[in-house]
Amino acid sequence: MLIIEKVLLLKNSEIFKNSRETDLVEIASICEECSFDKDVLIFSKGDKGNCMYFIYSGKVLIHDEGHEIVTLGENEIFGELSLLDTESRSASVTTLADCVLLKIEQEAFYDVIATNTDILKGIMRTLCKRLREQDRVTIEMKKVMS
Amino acid sequence: MLIIEKVLLLKNSEIFKNSRETDLVEIASICEECSFDKDVLIFSKGDKGNCMYFIYSGKVLIHDEGHEIVTLGENEIFGELSLLDTESRSASVTTLADCVLLKIEQEAFYDVIATNTDILKGIMRTLCKRLREQDRVTIEMKKVMS
């Protein structure tokens, strides 16, 4: 995959959509392309996580103890929390089709963002947005349950 | 309140607990002390938010359309998402007692973090932690509901 293709994939993701193309070239240069067959367990809940994945093609299932949490497809990302903090994986991920993924390792990522506040701010805004969405879901579920 | 007292309050909060004291002195210098009587609406859901609050003393209720979401007390914070992104308030806040709060305005905050990746990383880790907690709550609720 060319660097420019990687940049476009990153730009389409929620986490990097606010980042500038020049910053994304740096991130793209540390992305590693990797392929998985169908029905492969990529990581398990509780694993030490030190990378995140972008889905270039294919489909994966996020699951937890037999419960299906969500299905993700092209341009979507997973494992991003373990890239950003140092906690273990909070759910398991299995491929539902042959997949081509881009992998970003934590150490290389931290080298890039150490001097790049714009990327960090973009990520922070994305995390805030997801927290707001989660808060909304929790409040709605509480209303239904009460 | 002395700068050192403000630093200690910040250090006790989840959002800044991983930040260094030297960094917190910078943040403390932009904190404004403000008092509210009991039963005062500090902000309403939908308001444009451009600041966050630390509770030095007192108690507040976070609520949404008649639903009580959570009660917060000393050393806790609220309004932090609107400090970090540019969205409107996702819930309303009313004092349950006389309160002394520390207020941080967005513009001053961004000036400080523009050159300080460590503070940004600490905040990012905190947001990740909250997202993980929220994910856990959502999964548990889904299990209960199914």
From TrEMBL, chains A, B:
CDD domains: CAP_ED. InterPro entries: cNMP-bd_CS, cNMP-bd_dom, cNMP-bd_dom_sf, RmlC-like_jellyroll. Residues 15-130 form the Cyclic nucleotide-binding domain. Gene3D superfamilies: Jelly Rolls. Pfam families: cNMP_binding. PROSITE patterns: CNMP_BINDING_2 (PS00889), CNMP_BINDING_3 (PS50042). It comes from the Bacteria. This is Cyclic nucleotide-binding domain-containing protein. The lineage of its organism: Bacteria, Pseudomonadati, Bacteroidota, Sphingobacteriia, Sphingobacteriales.
